[in-house]
Amino acid sequence: MMFDLGSYNYLWSVFILFIGGFAVLLTSLLTERRFLLVAVGAVFAAISLILAIVQNFPGVIIGGSTSGSLTSIYLSGFSKLFFIAILVPAFLSLVGLAKSPMSRKPGLMIFIFLISLGFMLLAISSYNLLFIFVAFEGVSIPTYVLAAYGKSDSELEAAVKYFIIGAFSTGLIIFGISLYYISTGSLFLGVTPYFHSIYFLAMGVLIFGFGFKLAVFPLHGWAIDTYTGTSNPISSYLSTSSKIMTLVVLFNILLTSPLFFNYLKIIFAIIAILTMTFGNIVAISENNVKRMLAYSSIAQAGYLSIVFLVAGTGALNLAIISLFLYALAYGLMKAGSFLAMDSMGNYDIDNFSGLWKRNPAFAVSLSILLLSLAGFPGTLGFIGKYFLFLSVLSTGTSLAYLVVIISVINSVVSFYYYGRVIMYMFWRKGPEKSVENNYLLYTSAFLTVLFGVLYFLLFSYAQNVFPALMSFFPGGI
Length: 477
Hints:
The chain is an all-alpha fold. The chain has one domain (6-471). The protein has helices spanning 12-30, 34-54, 76-96, 106-124, 129-148, 153-184, 196-214, 221-229, 232-254, 261-284, 289-305, 316-340, 355-358, 360-374, 380-393, 398-427, 439-453, 455-465. It is globular.
């Protein structure tokens, strides 16, 4: 086959995005019609997603060096699953740019978007810290530009805060990588260290550096203003695809570091509890729905972070699939919710009053996504949380039980502020102004319910690309 890359065939999803970026750039030389440029970019993003879904990835070994041990706890199916979890919300965000205010150069913006998306996929499929860092910066620098691209005061302020915190976290990541190299003599993941104390320090610094990008408490401050100040499609992109990418990169680094597992579980138990509790408590008092969604993103990072408690246990296989389910659910829920704001204009909760009468489909769809974020049965958000909590409970430790109990309590608390928005939409009288249809919102809500009911299809697919799951469910699903 002319285009066969052997063990690197999985990179075709990345190459398609890069090719698409330059195709959009060349098209913009002929016309700056926004809908046409978005359509070209969306076609390439869709091809990349389809390739990620249907392509058979060869097995690969993760980590290793001539002087260290090899770690082979993953298959390439791991990267394939999270390619999908990243590409789905990114595709929705890209299509959302068609109605979002831009500058006179929409072609350049879409080019930057696709290039950053390609680097996201490279970052999660890299198992060398140098490659990870280069790919990560290939994401960070374009997203700084995207955050400020509309040039409004709120976007410029959001971009400056994002850039300053991003530059600081980049410095920490470089410092952590240098400590890792000093302790192991290698930049590959999964290498046995010579100097344990330096190695543990390296892991701690890397958690701190990537923690800023993941927006966990107390490293979350930038995220609120950035998600609130940028345009809705970029808020959607930064809060979903970028966050999922960061989580998976951190997962790759930490889950190939068995000497650090005991510390890892304690650290992330604390991080998860504080992050989800802080995000939910502050969101309760917010009357700006978009800002409430930003705090909700912080709380969701707390739920996602509990996956690290399965490190070194037999529940890892289930945890990986559960993380995929919840990451996909999170991408659909959060992308659809932020993109829904494009139809509202004013994000004050009073503006959502009476939405049921003004646009029933909009009110029902947004309610579905909010209920799914809270973990309501029958939605993909519930399925993702259920299996993620189950995988943590399967470890059988007291710490795991404590974290899951607090997570469930936080999920119940979140019903209050999500339900408050729903109550305003259905039971409050509001303005007579009509609300336009938002088909990205409808699509997100439909997929959230569809896969919430037919979740076993996702499990069957995951079993095919990640056969190790069969060891946890020997009888199948």
